[in-house]
Amino acid sequence: MNGNKKAAAPATASAAGTTGPQPPLLEVADLVTHYQVRRGVTERLTRAPQLWVHAVDGVSFRLARGEMMALVGESGCGKTTTAQTILGMVKPTSGAVRLNGTDIGGLSERQLRPLRRTVQMIYQDPYESLDPRFRVRESVEEPMLVHGIAGSRAEREATAVDVLERVGLSPARMYLDRFPHELSGGQRQRVAIAAALVLGPGLLLADEPVSMLDVSVRAGVLSLLDTLRGDGDMGILMITHDLSTAARFADRIAVMYLGRIVECGPSAEVVRNPQHPYTKALLSVVPKRDPRERTVPQILTGETPNPISVPSGCRFHPRCPVAEERCRQEDPQLRLPAAATSPAHQAACLLV
Amino acid sequence: MTLPLQDPLLSAEGEGQPSHRTGFFRSVLRERKAAVVGLSIIVFFVVLAIVAPYIAPYSVTEPSCGVYAPPSPQHWLGCDDGGFDMVSLLMVGGRISMIVGFAATLVAMIIGGGVGILSGYFGGWVDGSLMRVTDYLLVIPDLVFMMVIADLWGASLFHVIIVIGILEWTTTARVIRAQVMSVRERVYVKRARGMGAGNFRVVWRHILPQVGPLLIANTVLTIAIAIYLETALAFLGLEDPTAVTWGTILENAFQRTAISSGAWWAIVPAGFAIAAVIVGCFLFGQAVEDALNPRLRVSYLSIRPWRLRPLVGRGPDAI
Amino acid sequence: MSLLEVSGLHVWFDPPHAAEVHAVQGVSFALDPGERFGLVGESGCGKTTTVLALMGLLPPNASAAGEVLINGQNILAGGEDSVQAYRWKDVAMVFQGAMNALNPVKKIGWQIAEPMAFHGVAQGAAARKRAGELLEMVGIPAAAGDRYPHEFSGGMRQRAAIAMALACEPKILLADEPTTALDVMVQAQILELLTGLSRDLGLALVLVTHDLPVVAQVCERAAVMYAGEIVEAGPTEALYHNPRHPYTRLLFAATPDLYGHDAVISIPGAPPRLDGELTGCPFRPRCDVPLDRCRDEDPELRLVEVGHRAACHRNDLVGAS
Q1: DSSP H helices in A206-276
Q2: ipTM, 2 decimals?
Q3: Which domain CATH number covers C68?
Q4: CATH code for position B256
Q5: CB C40, CB C212: distance < 8 Å
Q6: How many folded domains does chain C comprise?
Q7: DSSP class of residue A208?
Q8: Is B58 contained in some domain?
Q9: What backbone phi and psi angles, to 5 degrees, belong to A265?
Q10: Which of A4, A218, A285 sits opposite C188 (nearest CB)?
Q11: Do C65 and B319 touch (CB under 8 A)?
Q12: pLDDT tens track of chain A, all 352 residues?
């Protein structure tokens, strides 16, 4: 159905994503990450209440090897913070993040270090994610040196060549001694991916991996990620605001709003049979390529509220076009909607 | 494990810019003539300082001419009140002045750079406490402090170096701190930390090279200030009077009534040399700092507007 | 006579220590009142430079040639001096990243009133009142004019930037990537606003973007730019359903669609450098269906059907469709 998929995702990939007794690659359980709002002197003196940014407010999902899942949402929904927490750069306020069964929330920096080999991140800006003074060779070899798996110069170079070939920069020797400013955006992003692969991670976090690249090169990088998912038996968590990219390249989509997942499931299902009103609205405003296809966009009024003051009950109710009275009081949980056509589809809405 | 590719030559998405292998400093020198002038002056005096003992025409410990003898073919700049040849005095004095200036700056740069990097990188209470220390030192008036130290510890070149170093690192620290804080937020630094690189590695390999040029610019400017301060101290009699530096040359000249004797050659050349080195340092240091400031690039609201080119004839290949 | 007629626009940049760059190479298009026109292309194709040239906002190392006729008057004829008279009054622009370029120490209302005072359209209290009306027109309560930019969200700041552009009631609005940094819902709001303004005020809109679907939904006509040239122009429907230039076709194919089934492709290679001599079609190295001719001859922009032009040698082939 989807012309880009080379290796089909495991057919039994339920929302749980587990395949047997082995712990899942990534398990996020009721993750909550709140930031303190910095208070000035006046606020401290007048004992104004401490405000918290509810960046992530109860997120749970699993990711298996060989799966690509997209975390989709607008700014302020908490997708980036979720990724930062999984990477270990931010400490969770409560809840668990388990990599291959190990909870990383309580680990110290020293204990985290070996786990850093398991999860690597690709950043949004290809023009900034490589040190401009490092040649490609040095950028790719750095992870090896950091984790002490370097070996001799020849061995390092061989590994670098191998991983550069894997990301499509061929012949690799031509690229080894180049500086980032000599490469195009797509090539830089591939170098960043290569540097992430060098440690043999099981989990790859991709934060808007192609949003700063030209349209004509995006599919190449995304296909590369798709191939790595299959051949390399890696799990990929892609953060994006672009629903079209998520729909065409990811196996599963999780839609986030104000720190929660409001809908998740196989991407084809979520896109063709959306249940949550927010998902429906988002899908309706995505512009179509075909000028003749002019759907009526369901443009929500206003903007996403501040994560500091989360609305009561269902956090989407102030902007929801079909909100009822009980939506203001009850906070819906993720569950199988009545109209779902796949058992793995979940939505957090009282009305479905 | 390679990906199937349509055309191996076009496999990756095209090219970026061709390599500009000229380094940062080379491009600064190429574009700003002031930098070239400044650097030449500095280099000239450094070389002079190095070869001074070998090419000084006369000794500075044995008098070789009369008191305040005017310039002559044997003594191009005449002699001072003790009968020492001015040219030799200037050369040897320059050597000591430059050494003091450079040494003091080295102290200031090490302390200032270190504080700036620690402060900027770690932030939090490290930053807070280091910046308070910096603030206290910034407020202390330089010359008064030096007078007190000279009084307490005695006047010697070593003390001068220490005192200048202690007082001059603060500006460097602030400038470097600001730069480090900005570089720390760059994505590649975050990426390095995210992959597990330790603090030392991140600072040494990623942050230091970025603040390097700024540190050098700041150092050069500090050299100018250090030499100036050394002169001031010597002039105020707070330095070892037996040392031969440009400052003591000037101080001697003033003490020993060179002005009323009309012996301009005892004062002007030394003063000129000091001014020249300071101007050279400033020209070069400012040029580097300006080059590092991206906001000084030409903007759209420049006074010179864009040009209109007349199209010769009409049609697509008219140009 | 069209409202805006660009004819043979060329722009060169002369960077220090480098060869001259021919950034815009003979661009021509026309615009009627109330029309929404899309200028599409990827980075480096010259679309931003083109609209900047329409405003005369080129840097000192730039030179331009060609005609830009607004209601028949060539505004480029006297260089910077002649363009000034039209800037903001006849043609105004919402810049790329305008929402981040608002003056942080001036209230929004003051910033919208400023161009009115400068161009002699309104002063003092009248200007402030008009600023309030403009804010309402873009969907912001007039009272918000007393706030500072940092108190606004990204979408609101972009609306304020649009209000600023409309201050002197221009007939032509140039919008350079107006929604690029915004969330998809806010993007929809802004696009709806721009479409509404174009309908209600009869404003001619030039929408510059790399996002093809946006142009497909908002604009009736569009031009695709590549390497400084327009390679295809026409109604957006024709561009999608009957593309006559390989780049247009490939660009659509490279854009993922929510419900599509075809594979999303990428176009190998990169645009050519614009600082040297180019022989033949600039797209040839990346084209998937090149002819021998394409190596030597640069195709001209020619009419392929009513209102639809394309610069490709394949259109000369017998039975091309």
Answers
A1: 215-231, 243-249, 267-272
A2: 0.90
A3: 3.40.50.300
A4: 1.10.3720.10
A5: yes
A6: 1
A7: S
A8: yes
A9: 165, -175
A10: A285
A11: yes
A12: 344 544 444 443 444 444 557 888 999 999 999 998 887 777 778 887 888 899 999 999 999 999 999 999 998 899 999 999 999 888 999 999 999 988 998 888 888 888 888 999 999 999 899 998 899 999 999 999 998 887 888 999 999 999 999 999 989 899 999 999 889 899 999 999 999 999 989 999 999 999 999 999 999 999 999 999 988 789 999 999 999 999 999 999 999 999 999 999 999 999 999 999 999 999 999 999 999 987 788 888 878 888 888 998 999 999 999 999 999 999 999 999 999 999 999 999 999 8
